[in-house]
Amino acid sequence: MAKARARVTRRGAYTPAKTVEYEGQVALAARLAMGGHAPFNGPLFTMVEVHLPVPRSWPKKKQAAALAGDLLPTTRPDLDNVVKVALDGCAGVVFLDDAQVVECAALKSYSPTPKLIITVAPMGSAA
Q1: What are the helix (H) ranges across the chain?
Q2: Which residues constitute the domain of residue 64?
Q3: What is the pLDDT of residues 53-111, one digit of tens each?
Q4: Which residues neighbour 99 within 8 Å (Cβ) at sequence distance 6 or greater?
Q5: CA distances (Å), 109 to each of 79, 106, 116, in order?
């Protein structure tokens, strides 16, 4: 899921409920993956992999091309918005703040199993 834009009303700005819920799901999965370890400190590298489902309405030949990597997703969700929601969901769990991410790679592909994979690794020494 992509991070939705903040909504502005007369009462102020707020993040849509679906986005908050998805960030919570990412945070829960991150907590489980961290296994009780403390959040990373210092500069970090992240890799965000977005594996999208192949549309069932597509012909079998087009589905096969998508799963083989010959056809890449150029539709929504936008990759940058998925990265935002992934990093925001990990903040406070995997790392203290997403400002610690100094290098980030991301990719979007089709998969028989839709999923979001986030890899985080320390870089160099803390400043």
Answers
A1: 17-34, 60-68, 79-90
A2: 7-122
A3: 999 999 999 999 999 999 999 999 999 999 999 999 999 999 999 999 999 999 999 99
A4: none
A5: 10, 10, 11
Report the domain count for the chain: 1
For residue 2, tell me if it sits in a domain: no
Residue 1 is assigned to a structural domain of this protein: no
Measure the CA–CA gap between 89 and 22, rounded to whole angstroms. 8
Spatial CB neighbours of 45, under 8 Å, sequence gap ≥ 6: 101, 102, 103, 104, 105, 120, 121, 122, 123
Tens of pLDDT, residue by residue over 19-33, are 888 889 999 999 999
**15 Cβ neighbours under 8 A, 6+ residues apart:** 4, 6, 7
Residue with tokens 């370890």: 37
